[in-house]
Design brief:
The complex is a heterodimer of chains A (579) and B (139).
Chain A lengths: L3 E6 L3 E8 L2 E4 L8 E2 L1 E5 L2 E4 L1 H7 L6 E3 L11 E3 L2 E3 L1 H20 L5 E6 L5 H13 L3 E7 H15 L13 E8 L4 E8 L3 E9 L4 H20 L7 H20 L2 E9 L7 E8 H7 L1 H17 L9 E5 L6 H11 L12 H14 L7 E2 L6 E6 L10 E7 L7 E8 L7 E8 L9 E9 L8 E8 L4 E8 L4 E8 L7 E2 L10 H25 L3 H20 L4 H18 L1
Parallel strand pairs in A: 1-10, 10-11, 12-17, 14-18
Antiparallel strand pairs in A: 1-2, 2-3, 2-4, 5-6, 5-7, 8-9, 12-13, 13-14, 15-16, 19-20, 19-22, 21-24, 22-23, 24-25, 25-26, 26-27
Helix pairs in contact in A: 2-3, 4-10, 5-6, 11-12, 11-13, 12-13
Chain B lengths: L1 H8 L7 H14 L6 H15 L2 H10 L6 H9 L21 H16 L8 H15 L1
Helix pairs in contact in B: 1-3, 2-3, 4-7, 6-7
The chains are: A alpha+beta (579), B mainly alpha (139).
């Protein structure tokens, strides 16, 4: 299978990584691999990355930055004379990353895994996939940024004994990933041992470095107003200039205790420029942004609560995202978790590297790390509320697969018909956390025709949710063998398929085939790499024979294939442990 | 259901939580969700059933309705039934008791707590409470 590249499509910076000899490696696009997520138009020339970033402060009207904050909205962005969707701008960044990476790596880049904040809504995830499509890429999977960071940490841990669990203690660690980026904040709790399980994930898609910068800008604007009587709050050229200044102040204050801002020629609407000179200390910044840091702590507590863990049960805290360089962030977390539990990982590259690892898992190049992820959103069914007589007419969303359920998952729930001889029920599938359908996203639906029965006739609705976000709904009127089935791609709802109209056995044959091929590939890959790794001749022969039997059974379409597969996997397990 | 779950995880009736966890992790490693999605879902469900995971209890409590009797629930949990159908006392014999005294006591508790009533639960909340009581007795 082709290589699958991992892309961290960030608010401020983006990165692209790929597996090399089983290890993730960030491709040094723009020098160090950290590519500013900025697009700028220079005459006819479209600039992306570092060069666009350099232009953006001087030509804010011909530049777009922090487009990630607009993903999933219908807002249009102006770039020169044309206007673009946020997806188009993101596609330009993706295209740039892939083109530049191709120049360095050679070979085509077609398949990618793109990371998104864990708390990204469904619309935001869909927009990200759309951006990939518009860049001409096949998006193999969307994964959560903290999960990607944890995958990378897990790999580091495998090769570094320091980070490994303490012998005699539990064979797993509880890891909390704190990911504060340019525009979004995420926190996830994972259990990492022989397998990596996400236990809870939460966050804030509108909280990040940009908000910290804005506080500094506000302070400078106030100074200008007091000094020169100028109100530049809505003047874009000045804001763009001061935005860049603020970012520099913030970054400097992570290293030094104080810094001076001296800016002359700040553009104003009145043709003349103004200047500003002021002193910022680290304490100033911390005081200005105290509430922002506290908001992240609230999410940290929520995530631990959802994972049913207390701070003393957290073995490691991973700091991800450039914003975690702010000393106050680490200090605030130290107050909860203690300093010793924060291993050093690269805050900028971990996410892209983790995405590359996930790419390897999908392609079969990486059989060692096993990830169990969770649903980012609750899947519910629209039903009439029966809580209160007064609300009898109220439609509510009844959750079937709650948020943070490990996937792939299947869950069922019983509902009841409301009137005598009801002839059908509408089955509308919603995604979102609210009980009010209007606040959630409708992703699809179908009808179930009912047989004549008394009111209160039970109807069992079962949802399955897979790794690619595909929902399979089966609804059945109990005792009357009335059944309906639908397949909804939550990332691409237009392709929903009503399965009740398709002959049984015919459905999704292509999907089944692909799934089976993936499994076969996994089994043979594992067997082969173990045969290579083993020095023991007897074992080698044993494994080779079992693999041959398996391959022969596959060819002959043997009925015992499952048993033979089991046998081979058990053999692999046995021998892998001894290695 | 429990019988089937034990078979899926390939553990005996006396498996303790640690053994269950090991069996689960072993199977997930052998059949990763990426390549064996159905098998994973099945393994996970079996593990949740045997550990009476909150997620599983939540699902159960959602499926309970006014026709569900404590015995029906018990038969569903510990017997070989797949449905929460209403049942009478005669099924008691069908229910194999597993995993030692903990579960036996919990079941006794569950049955005792509902014996004084009319064997039926009126509301979901009440049912939920009952299920929880059963679980607490186990813990």
């Amino acid at each position: 299978m082709d290589k699958i590249y991992g892309i961290d499509l960030g608010t401020t910076n983006s990165c692209i990584s790929v597996l090399k000899d089983g290890k993730p490696y960030t491709i040094p696009v723009d020098g160090n691999g950290i590519v500013p997520s900025v697009v700028s138009l220079d005459g006819e020339n479209l600039l992306v990355g570092r060069s666009a970033w350099n232009r953006a402060a001087a030509f804010p009207e011909q530049s777009v930055r922090s487009v990630k904050r607009l993903m999933g909205t219908a807002e249009k962005l102006k770039l020169g004379k044309k206007s673009y969707d946020p997806e188009d701008i993101s596609a330009m960044i993706l295209r740039y990353l892939c083109d530049e990476a191709k120049k360095i790596e050679g070979g085509d880049i077609d398949k990618v895994v793109i990371t998104v904040p864990a708390y990204f809504s469904d619309a935001q995830r869909r927009a990200t996939i759309e951006a990939g499509k518009r860049a001409g890429l096949t998006v193999e999977r969307i994964i959560n940024e903290p999960t990607a960071a944890a995958l990378f940490y897990d790999q580091v841990k495998i090769s570094s004994p320091d980070a490994a669990p303490v012998p005699g203690k539990t064979p797993w660690q509880h890891v909390l990933v704190y990911d504060l980026g340019g525009g979004t904040f995420d926190v996830s709790v994972l259990r990492m041992g022989e397998i990596i399980e996400v236990m809870a994930s939460t966050g804030d898609t509108r909280l990040g470095g940009d908000d910290f910068d804005r506080r500094i800008v506000t302070r400078i604007l106030r100074q200008i107003k007091e000094k020169d009587g100028l109100d530049l709050e809505d003047y874009v050229p000045a804001l763009a200039r001061l935005g860049a200044v603020a970012e520099k102040v913030k970054i400097t204050l992570s290293e030094s205790a104080a810094t001076r801002v001296s800016e002359a020629h700040i553009p104003t609407p009145k043709k003349k420029t103004c200047s500003v000179s002021m002193e910022f200390s680290r304490e100033d910044l911390e005081e200005m942004t105290d509430d922002l840091v506290e908001r992240t702590i609230t999410s940290v507590e929520k995530a631990m609560d959802e994972a049913k863990l207390t701070p003393d049960k957290i073995d490691r805290v991973l700091l991800v995202g450039g914003m975690t360089r702010m000393p106050i962030v680490a200090a605030r977390l130290e107050r909860i978790f203690g300093a010793a539990r924060m291993p050093v990982v690269d805050p900028d590259l971990s996410v892209a590297n983790g995405a590359a690892i996930q790419g390897g898992i999908i392609s079969g190049a990486n059989c060692e790390q096993i990830l169990v992820d969770v649903t980012p959103h609750t899947l519910s069914l629209e039903v009439l509320s029966d809580r209160d007589e007064d609300y009898l007419e109220t439609l509510i969303c009844a959750p079937i697969i709650p948020r943070n359920t490990q996937i792939p998952a299947t869950r069922a729930r019983t509902f009841h018909s409301i009137i005598h001889n009801q002839d059908m029920v509408l089955l509308n599938v919603y995604q979102g956390e609210s009980t009010d359908p209007n606040e959630n996203t409708l992703i699809g639906g179908t009808k179930l025709k009912l047989a004549k029965a008394d009111a209160g006739c039970p109807i069992v609705v079962e949802y399955s949710y897979d790794l690619n976000g595909i929902v399979h709904l089966v609804a059945e009127q109990k005792g009357y063998s009335r059944k309906t089935e639908i397949r909804i791609d939550s990332r691409n709802p237009e392709t929903s398929q009503d399965l009740s109209e398709i002959e049984e056995g015919e459905e999704n044959e292509a999907d089944d085939f692909e799934e089976e091929a993936k499994a076969v590939n996994f089994v043979t890959q594992r067997a082969r790499s173990l045969i290579e790794a083993t020095t023991d001749k007897d074992k080698q022969k044993l494994l080779t024979d079992a693999l041959k039997r398996y391959e022969k059974a596959l060819n002959d379409d043997d009925d015992d294939i499952d048993d033979i597969e089991d046998e081979l996997l058990a053999l692999i397990e046995e021998n892998a442990e001894e290695n | 259901m429990i019988e089937q779950a034990l078979k899926i995880l390939k553990v005996g009736r006396n498996a303790d939580p640690e053994t269950l966890r090991q069996a689960y992790v072993r199977l997930v490693r052998r059949y990763p969700p990426e390549y064996f999605p159905d098998r994973f879902a099945q393994t996970r469900k079996a593990y949740q059933q045997l550990t009476l995971d909150d997620d599983f209890l939540d699902e159960i409590s959602q499926r309970i309705d006014e026709n569900t009797t404590p015995l029906g629930l018990a038969a569903f949990l510990w017997g070989d039934r797949d449905e929460l159908a209403p049942l009478d006392a005669s099924v008691l014999d069908l229910i194999p008791l597993i995993a030692g005294d903990g579960v036996r006591n919990a079941l006794d508790e569950l049955l005792k707590s509902s014996a004084s009533e009319d064997m039926g639960w009126k509301t979901e909340q009440e049912a939920e409470q009952k299920t929880e009581q059963g679980v607490k007795a186990r813990g």
